[in-house]
Amino acid sequence: MSWTEITVLVEKAKTGDREAYGELVARFQSSVYAMALGRVRDPLEAQELAQDVFVHAMRKLPQLRDPRCFAGWLRRITARMAINRLTRRG
Description:
The protein is mostly helical. Helix content is 81%, strand content 0%. It starts with a helix and ends with a helix.
């Protein structure tokens, strides 16, 4: 999948297209999980964190100004949510 296709999917997802968002999740799920696992060091918790990241991103997607920045935006959400989770865990 090219970055142009991802940009199109982001634009569609911003208008409420769930199928387009599902494609984005499928495309980025492994990288979000890998990043989450690197942060929390627990496979089950990383899986839960990855799911939470995608739910949060879906709600906040209309705030993303430039669809070309989706991957970096998703990485920032993952990092922040991992930090929050680790902070709460102590």
